[in-house]
Amino acid sequence: MTNIDTRRETNFAVTLTPSNFGENTYIARVPRKTVTTDQILDLVAAHNQGIDRYQVGHAMELLKKEILEQAELGFSVDIMEICKLYIAPLRSVKSLTPEAEEVSGFEARFSVNDRLKERLRGMTAAVTAVVDSAPQISLIENPVAEEGKNKEVLKATYSARVTGRKLKVGGETGGIFFVPMNDENVPSSNELEWVKVPKEFITHNTDRLLEFHLPRTLEADRKYFIAVRIAERYGTKLKTPVTGMSRIPVMVAGA
Fold first, then answer.
1. Which of 23, 112, 197, 210 has the fewest CB neighbours in a 10 Å radius?
2. Which of 175, 144, 140 has the alpha carbon at shortest distance from 157?
3. How far is it, in rounded angstroms, from Cα 233 to Cα 215?
4. Half-sphere exposure (Cβ direction) of 90: Cα atoms closer than 13 Å
5. Which residues contact 93 (CB under 8 A, 6 or more apart)?
6. Which residues contact 78 (CB under 8 A, 6 or more apart)?
């Protein structure tokens, strides 16, 4: 449940997510936090000494009943000059004799009051976080390792499992790569040295889990970082592919 501050103070903030379709462009989102009817009643009581909270709650129930009844009768209802509630058909009607049809299936819609729109346009908010849209690798393991054995050691010609977030690979330039660790113990920046996992080697490809067979060209007894590159997401080609790199290397041991 959302915590509320009766002093009318707020730490209102938005999150920024890099846009995949424009360089140095971010999409701002307001985290959705819901205040319940009971919390609204608590605020009314806190800000208006002497008011009977239960009477206000009863009045709200009566208002809700009348609003719903008027909406069901087909009226557009102005709710306290904040927004208008109205109903609309769920789908279009196809008929040779439309005048003889009965339209069924409706949904509720809302239009915001102009005064509220103006007030919201004048608001400002801090940035609470910048959300990275790149794949995030949380764990790499050898799924066929015996119980209690070192699962961080991958065996050549066998398989690997990667778990995390936003992992599903797509697009021509996307994929899973083994990135050699260089002499400075960091991933090689020379992508010509990267070894790509063939598409047909990937047996499981979801946002949370990747499973794949190891490329045959990996060097045994060498450490690699694993990179996941996304060039297409939800069927849409990204303007700039995004890449997530494992923070810890894994050892590829001989078969």
1. 23
2. 144
3. 24
4. 5
5. 101, 103
6. 84, 113
